[in-house]
Here is the input.
Amino acid sequence: MNDVIIQCRGLTKNYHEGPQDICVLDGVELELKRGERLAIIGSSGVGKSTLLNLLGGLDTPTSGDVSVVGELLSGLDDDRRGALRNQKLGFVYQFHHLLGEFTAEENVSMPLLIGGLNKHMATQRSVAILNKVGLANRLYHKPAELSGGERQRVAIARAIVTEPACVLMDEPTGNLDEETANTIESLLITLNQQMGLSFIIVTHNKRLAASMDRVLELKEGRLFPAVLEATR
Here is the structure.
């Protein structure tokens, strides 16, 4: 079994602003192993979210390659790329992006239904995952009836309900108070240990970054090893 979940080689991303080419990523090299927790830190505007979007197949690089569980994203058509994201990747953002007219259970079921699972099985699996993230008593509440931390736990449940190989997270605690952020951090570590999930987390939260297996810093368009002390 190949233990490499996500790999990128020579990844570059340029943007055009008038007559200028802006180089955001300049030959990024990265390899994520099965079950690994990786944090990516860096100054605001340095390109962390851009990198995450490229790793998740939500954007295309100027040059270089990204592979997910051995499949080269550049070699896939739109349908196959979408199916790969649905089956092998989960996404969590700073803002939960839940659908306000649907309950927690219905929001979590969505990726399963999109993937073709029947409604009965999707409901069973979404309920089980919501139980796992501590929301057994919030299954049929809509986002407006949930706290910020609860909404983010629903978003995490939605990201992991398909049992993806990797979950990509962009500032998952950035909109939460410190106590709630610490609860989310503990939840992520528990899910990693219980389900063997791999995480790539872009964050400014030094405590969250320090709790990961490995921390890389994005600067000048490339990734470099970073060392952080946990803030307790």
Q: What stands out?
A: Strands lie at 4-17, 20-33, 37-41, 63-68, 71-72, 89-93, 166-170, 198-202, 214-219, 222-225.
